[in-house]
Design brief:
By secondary structure, this protein is an alpha/beta fold. The chain has one domain (2-264): Alpha/Beta hydrolase fold, catalytic domain (Rossmann fold, 3-Layer(aba) Sandwich). The chain has 11 helices and 8 strands. The chain has helices at residues 37-43, 69-82, 96-107, 127-143, 146-156, 161-164, 166-178, 181-192, 221-229, 246-249, 251-264, and strands at residues 2-7, 10-17, 22-26, 48-52, 89-94, 112-118, 208-213, 234-239. An 8-stranded mixed β-sheet has the order 1-2-4-3-5-6-7-8, sandwiched between helices. Helix 2 (69-82) packs across helix 3, helix 4 (127-143) runs antiparallel to helix 8 and helix 5 (146-156) runs antiparallel to helix 7 (166-178). It is globular. The two termini are 26 Å apart. The structure holds D-malate. D-malate binds at residues 28-29, 95-96, 191, 218.
Length: 267
């Protein structure tokens, strides 16, 4: 079911279903919790699955000029407080959700039992990417989200996904189009300012599953495999035939890998 949880005066819309150990799913940019539908349907049979729309996105309030990864991580911590969840959780983040997961892992270490990182990076943005984030922020505030749809949609998916699953492309296209320009601008700037976590990877000493679509052009497998090797308890897998949106493009493969990881790292 969906409920609205108010944290620090911001209404966060949040999917919450099932019982058992908590799996918290954190969406990418500029999306909403529905990108996790296949995982939420599957895992609510054995776990409590929680998936918020991040501040400013989906049906949540709280968009602003600057939305930092740390602010999003603080929101997740407040959300767990309001839901009275004390036991260590498993956090699963995709791309920007992964940037947020790093912040959460470093700041709220005791809250985490396991980490699942899908299609994300540990490095900070280059200067060029940072400058482009500012261009995106200004442009979206001036002309709305349509240019972002055109610029992003092809890069998000593997070549075959458009032919085999046009409905997934439409789903994501609609979410991007309907996203709040202020939230897009704020998160764009926030991603540009995020810290480089490469020197902190050895501190993340919990079981971690690192997944990457074999055709991910945004956060390529080589880069993800490299950072996973620096994490003390990480295992890395590529998802054949998937791009940056691996959990949507290949839900069975991703769910099986997550299921196996949860079983062998039982806490
Ligand atoms: C995402 O999927 O969340 C974005 O591609 C992340 C980014 O722009 O770095």
């Amino acid at each position: 079911m969906i409920h609205t949880v108010t944290i620090n005066d911001v209404p966060l819309s949040c999917f919450d279903a099932g019982e058992g150990q908590v799996l918290l799913f954190v969406h990418g940019f500029p999306l909403d919790y529905t990108m996790w539908s296949a995982q939420l349907d599957y895992f609510q049979r054995g776990y409590r699955v929680i998936a918020p729309d991040l501040r400013g996105f989906g049906k949540s309030g709280g968009a602003g000029d600057l939305l930092t990864m740390e602010q999003f991580a603080d929101d997740l911590n407040s959300l767990l407080n309001v839901l009275e969840i004390d036991e260590p959780i498993t956090l699963c983040g995709l791309s920007m959700g992964g940037y947020i997961a790093w912040q959460f892992a470093l700041k709220y270490t005791e809250r985490l039992a396991r980490l699942i990182l899908c299609d994300t990076k540990a490095a900070a943005d280059s200067q060029e990417v940072q400058m482009n984030r500012e261009v995106v922020a200004s442009q979206v505030l001036e002309e709305g989200t349509q240019f972002l749809v055109e610029g992003m949609i092809e890069k998000l998916f593997a070549a075959m996904t458009g032919q085999t699953h046009p409905e997934i492309i439409k789903q994501i296209r609609d979410i991007i189009k309907n996203s709040s320009p202020l939230a897009v601008a704020g998160a764009s700037r926030g991603m540009g300012q995020r810290i480089d976590v490469q020197s902190h990877l050895t501190e993340i000493d919990i079981p971690a599953l690192v997944l990457c679509g074999s055709e991910d052009a945004i956060t390529p497998p080589e880069e993800m495999e490299k950072f996973s090797r620096k994490m003390p308890k990480a295992e890395f897998h590529t998802i054949p035939g998937a791009g940056h949106m691996a959990p949507l493009e290949k839900p069975k493969l991703v769910n099986n890998l997550i299921q196996e990881f949860l079983a062998i790292t039982d806490v």
